[in-house]
Amino acid sequence: MTDFTTTRSLFHLPDGIIYLDGNSLGPLPKAASQRVAGMMADEWGTMLIRGWNEAGWMSLPRRIGDRIGRLIGAPEGHVVMGDTLSIKVYQALASALDIVHERDASRRVILSDSGNFPSDLYMAEGLIRTLDRDYELKVVAPEDVEAAIDERVAATLLTEVDYRTGRLHDMKALTAKAHAMGALTVWDLAHSAGAIPVDLSGADADFAVGCTYKYLNGGPGAPAFIYVSPQWADRARPALSGWLGHEQPFAFDQSYRPGQGIDRMRVGTPPILALAALDAALDAWEGVDLGEIRRQSIALCDLFIAEVEGRCKDLVLGSPREGARRGSQVSFLHDEGYAIMQALIARGVIGDFRAPNAIRFGFTPLYIGKEDVLAAVDILSDIVKNRLWDQPQFKKKALVT
Ligand SMILES: *Cc1c(COP(=O)(O)O)cnc(C)c1O
Questions:
Q1: How would you label 109-131 residue by residue, b for 16+ Cβ within 10 Å and e otherwise?
Q2: What does each C-alpha distance from 106 to 94, 140, 380, 399 come to in angstroms?
Q3: What is the pLDDT of residues 203-250, one digit of tens each?
Q4: Is 119 in the pocket of ligand 1 (CB under 6 A)?
Q5: DSSP string, 14-32
Q6: What are the pLDDT digits (tens) for 49-75?
Q7: How far is it, in rounded angstroms, from Cα 179 to Cα 155?
Q8: Mean pLDDT of 322-347
Q9: How far, in Å, CA of 294 to CA of 197, rounded?
Q10: Whose CA is nearest to atom 15 of ligand 1?
Q11: Closest residue (by CA) to atom 12 of ligand 1?
């Protein structure tokens, strides 16, 4: 049984704030500040360039990849860190398409759904233009994905947990269907890693990608991860052939030869300060049972839904009601959702808003408990019942919502 009071004490949680946005940016782990400060003084400051060898900077992307691999059911040596999620989506999709193209050049469809995060769709559009192979990006409703996987599909590009609604895809079933139809799968775990148990090996997923600044608490702009299944690790052809993905970066050859396995998914110089913060953030997961996190998260979300529906009649649930069909977040819909969220934030309850009308709340058992949920609903119901959101300062749109 995980003791969540202990994990809560690992985070810097400002007084007077109830933080229900760890699904978008995890809070600061105390160990991360210390690690980064120590790294600057003892490694960068003292070792200078020798740090690449002496402090093991160059192997950090693989070492941290393995730590994340343990949270997502990936075997050792098949996850590597680097770049941002959008770039990893591009790399994974390009590799999947290449593998399928070699064995069946007639497949033209990249299948995604309308709940996918726009950047994933934009990256697919950009890749299609670059490849010039007449690919079609087919975007269907999330509930129609399974039926849309047919023999024209080259690859599926799906985010397991919908960023706006929290709706959870059945990774295992959809992957099995894709394979039965001869397609490969690219899974985006942005809202899965650290939120729910993931079993990439058990699902037989081909490629997976994700970010580390959401439930993994790596900090704003923390590097992304990419997984390539053992079956494809030495066959994937990296679309972004940077020097650190080369078989021998320091041979400085004139032409590119892909490195061994997952190493070929590296591109350029890794962000060592950000990786140091992430490495420290991942300590919070040591000894934590993700099954227990999942049970707690469902309980917190269920409690939140019941309390909000009981006390805020104007809000409409925008997430699946059944815990097993949701990730670790809950959305409610209201035409004035933006103003409601700004009013909430002004009272110390931080969630976020996703256009056109969703107020979104993430529930992260590592540091959020039942008392936080109840206190947040007290404030939310006050704001909704008394129309406290109906003020000009809450309606002015900021750059980041
Ligand atoms: C958060 C998120 C992103 C963001 O990508 P970045 O390149 O890290 O900005 C992309 N896709 C999904 C599904 C996300 O949830």
A1: bbbbbebbbebbbebbeebbeee
A2: 16, 21, 53, 43
A3: 999 999 999 999 999 999 999 999 999 999 999 999 999 999 999 999
A4: yes
A5: -TT-EE--TTTSPPEEHHH
A6: 999 999 999 999 999 999 999 999 999
A7: 10
A8: 98
A9: 7
A10: 190
A11: 117
| Of the candidates 147, 165, 166, 164, the residue with the CA atom closest to the CA atom of residue 156 | 147
Calculate mean pLDDT across residues 184-202.
Answer: 98
Going from the Cα of 221 to the center of ligand 1, the distance in angstroms, rounded, reads: 10
Tokens representing residue 293 in the block: 């996190």
Sequence-separated (6 or more) residues with CB below 8 Å from residue 231:
206
For ligand 1, atom 13, the nearest C-alpha belongs to 117
- Using DSSP bridges, classify how beta strands 136-140 and 153-159 pair: parallel, antiparallel or unpaired: unpaired
Task: Please state, in angstroms and rounded to a whole number, the distance separating the CA atoms of residues 160 and 145.
Answer: 12
* The pair of three-digit structure tokens given for residue 80, joined into one six-digit string: 């590597």
Distance 188 CA to ligand 1 centre (A): 9
Ligand 1 pocket test target in 211, 331, 354 with most atoms within 8 Å of CB:
211
Structure tokens at 205: 């997923």
> What is the Å distance from ligand 1's center to 164 Cα?
12
Burial of 224 (C-beta count, 10 Å sphere; 0-12/13-18/19+): buried
8 Å CB contact between 234 and 265: no
Q: Which amino acid is at 86?
A: S
Structure tokens at 114: 């309308």
Dihedral (C-alpha) 369, 370, 376, 379: value to the nearest 10 degrees? -150
pLDDT digits (tens, 9 = 90+) for 18-57: 999 999 999 999 999 999 999 999 999 999 999 999 999 9
From the alpha carbon of 221, which atom of ligand 1 is closest?
8
* Residue to substitute in 90, 120, 157 for testing ligand 1 pocket (most ligand atoms within 8 angstroms of CB): 120
Whole-structure pTM value: 0.97
Q: Is the CB of 216 under 6 A from ligand 1?
A: no
Cα–ligand 1 centroid distance for 249 (angstroms)? 29
For ligand 1, whether the C-beta of 190 sits within 6 Å is yes
Tokens of 392: 């000009």
- Tell me the domains of the chain and their CATH numbers: 37-285 (3.40.640.10), 289-395 (3.90.1150.10)
Ligand 1: atom nearest CA of 191 is 15
Q: Catalytic residues, which ones?
A: 117, 188, 213-214, 360
